[in-house]
């Protein structure tokens, strides 16, 4: 059997946790045979629980008859699948059951005597980069679980939380939302000990209607903290800073110095970028200690993400483990994160940077404009390339494109831009 990736559970325990009905009732139920959980049948290994979710294009229930042969010890289903050679736990809603199972797994881990800390992250931009920075830093202290990519919704967060086991020291939980109430639901499943709020921007403005509603949604991570939990806020964002009023206990601040009377726990001085767009700055804490930092990742906007990660590590959980200089050195060694920003491509002398997924167009272009002091061009690239016919822009060129494209495909898009005269 594979090594446990979650707290080992019996089928009876799982059925109780998800308020389900075990079928057939004759199977052995008291041995802790379940050690992992997946929604993708291709990932099933011996000891797995398969959670069958009906999606828009694929219904996981269609794969229930096959998972027993792959080693699954049970399947969570919303209706019994006749003839399937695997015990089934029937529930009303498998997505909610997945969340309930994840909640139980975290409660099991918290019940152990060894230390365990959940760090929740939210914000309109920067969640994934900050999550990856935190994981890299915290992994030096102990086993750290963090989502792959941007697993930050009602399916992704539970799947990540079901990778927590007795040996896990930290869980970095990315929490996203398209509507008010979604982060509240996520924190009800996995309440964070530390909440990090990065920014309230205009991403998904159409779903929310206003920046104030976005702020309301993001503030749910602060309201969802465990009693006495720590809040880490961006002092440079007025919507985020206002969340200090609802913090249950201590608040730490990060940001760039803007007011003489501002008390920042971590800040960046003398920020600059080299020719390869690697930011350098002086990392300083509120006591005046400082260390020189050159980030291994690109983009001046990542300075704020680095400050958030430093705030999340140095003071709350690692003051005795990390010196400020140690954090600086580790940040310099992190050369790659699971970013939605693809490396810039130079094609026929034109610098083209591809941005993907949920980064908001106006914010991206403003960032690039501030960084390069040049006008930028942006468009959306979907299955068919749709470009205006008479737009000419100075480099760098910013292009939205779907994730998971290859460098070759990006270069083809770039050449298309040049061939149509879109790029001067």
Explain what you see.
The protein is of the alpha/beta class and 424 residues long. It has 13 helices and 17 strands. The chain has helices at 11-17, 64-67, 94-110, 127-138, 156-161, 182-189, 205-208, 211-223, 238-241, 302-314, 324-333, 361-372, 407-419, and strands at residues 21-23, 36-38, 48-51, 74-77, 88-90, 117-122, 144-145, 170-174, 194-197, 230-234, 251-255, 266-273, 279-285, 290-294, 345-347, 350-356, 397-401. The strands form three sheets. A nine-stranded mixed β-sheet has the order 7-8-6-9-10-11-12-13-14, sandwiched between helices. It has a five-stranded mixed β-sheet with strand order 1-5-4-3-2, with helices on one face. β12 and β13 form a beta hairpin. It is elongated. It starts with 10 loop residues before the first helix and ends in a 5-residue tail after the last helix.
Jot down its keywords.
19% strand, five-stranded mixed beta sheet, 13 helices, alpha/beta, 424 residues, elongated, nine-stranded mixed beta sheet, 17 strands
